[in-house]
Amino acid sequence: MHKDLESAFTRVIEIMKNDQRCKGGWHYGSISRSTDDQYSDYDAVFLVDTDFEAFAADAPKVLAAASDELVLFWGESFNDAHFKNYNSVIRIGSQLHQMDFFIINADYPDAWMCRQHCKGCTRDNLIFDRSGETAAFLDKGYRTENELPDTIRTMDTFWMHTEMLIKYFKRKDLFKIIKNMDVLFHAHVDLLLSRYDTLDWGAWESKVKLCVPEEKQQHLKAYFAKPEIHDLQAAVKRGIAFFQQDAAEICQAKGMDYPDRIAEQIIAYFHSKIDSEDQ
Known about the structure:
The chain has 11 helices and 6 strands. The chain is an alpha+beta fold and about 280 residues long. It has 2 domains: about 5-140, Beta Polymerase, domain 2 (2-Layer Sandwich); about 150-275, Up-down Bundle (Four Helix Bundle (Hemerythrin (Met), subunit A)). A 6-stranded mixed sheet has the order 3-4-5-2-1-6, sandwiched between helices. Strand 3 and strand 4 (about 85-90) form a beta hairpin. The longest helix has 26 residues, at about 230-255. The model has no long low-confidence stretch (mean pLDDT about 95).
């Protein structure tokens, strides 16, 4: 953690301790898992029991007061009356730093995002606790379940969009190609996570990095290419081959029937159309 960011965070906490609307707070993210490094930022969650919206409206004032300048204040699109997260960029001297500002409405602890930001957090993660209520809140063990992607759905999605790509390649519709290749990539990610995900926190990129074997991670890199039609076609062909291999292995490991008839027909048709000269 950068020393300037540590100083700014200390000032944020001093302000929070003097705000009677805030019951307390705890560390979420890398600090709560003891995986933070010099590039980490703070992911503090504050528990608010009264005037939730007014407290949220004051968040930029808090960050401005804790830094030399609040450069950017950006609320997540999912913010609602139960949970809010504000990302910010603050300036301290000549350095820019990111700081997140999570707030939970104590009246709605069962809301999904509220439970998600209690997940894995205990009294050991407390930053401060005004009256013991924050510790008691964490003691309840609010959490979300780690739901694995549906393996069959990932395969259906992949093969559907593979067939869809044919017309876009024929039209040389670059941005439609890029969009649908993104769908293929994420279907492949979900396929692998349906087998390998053991992580009880984090978004897909963390789960891939920490759970998926290195060999399979290499398969996901196949989808990245220069934005030229020929290179993108080659990337899709690589991705198809790796996806077919991974899907067959995962179905076998799960004791599922691999829909090889679907895969074989679409793969053969894709290659025949892409490799032909017809328009």
